[in-house]
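Supplementary Text 2. Reproducibility record for the structural model of the 323-residue chain.

All settings were left at their defaults, and a single model was retained for analysis rather than an ensemble. We include the record here because the model underlies the residue-level annotations in Supplementary Table 4.
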Amino acid sequence: MRPPAFWDAHPHHPAALALRPLGALYGRLTAARMARPGARGPCPVLCLGNFTLGGAGKTPAALALADILRDLGARPAFLSRGYGGRLPGPVAVDPARHGAADVGDEPLLLARCAPAVVARDRVAGAALCAAGGADVIVMDDGLQNPSLTKDLALAVVDAGAGIGNGLPFPAGPLRAPLADQWAHVAGLILVGDGPGEAVAEAALRHGLPVHRARLAAEPGALAGRRVLAFAGIGRPQKFFATVRESGADVAATRAFPDHHPYAAGDLAALAAEAARLGADLVTTEKDAVRLPAAFAARVLSVRLRFRDEAPLRAQLRALCRPA
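Retained model, structure tokens:
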């Protein structure tokens, strides 16, 4: 779904006011659910979640943290719900055998980095991760799911979006009131710059570390190329900005809903417009796994870079070697 514009407007916007009672109920129910005790995993569980609905950069964060965990000597495996996939799991993701329609797009990306398991039952999924040799589980999303105890939970916040109007769904983008979610996280990963700085300041007031990071493409990856950039992710505009920063001449952009399943008509329209503009098509790694192999589009790879990795490494070291 595309987030409605009023989610980023003033909390007294007429639509937000009309939906506020429903949002208050939804927020209370989610907060109560988050407070339930969960089952202990077979090994330490790191959860990367977000306070809001939609994309915040959790998957790039999961990939970056898995790299750090491996550098610390751990054997991480990813655990995902497999949003958009048909398989309930638990199933070990095999990119040679599974497609986005089977397991979702994000697990296919994660599986390129480390073993990945898709499971709607998080406890069963954690057991399969451990059976495969993992000694730490990186859970992509699931902050509001209480079924599996999190040994370390970090909230990922897109600074460019922040928490919108600060109201729970459907009046705003929050999954639960922010005040009720602080107790469930041990730190914040702030991606980029923007309104999310206010969330970072609130995290510091709660005594939580803020790990500042930025999504970056390889310098000059598209330097001088005329491109039509398209994306079906949580915040396409963030990707388009990264394309421009890579040195590309952006002739046009096309935004699709998050996890958009590209139909033949979508692809034909994109190809025709790119030909008319004399431009190359460029998209995200996440979109690329939902495209037919024969579709000609460049893929711009981005990685999450931390301003100061030392405090984050300390948290992960403590997770791997608990006292």
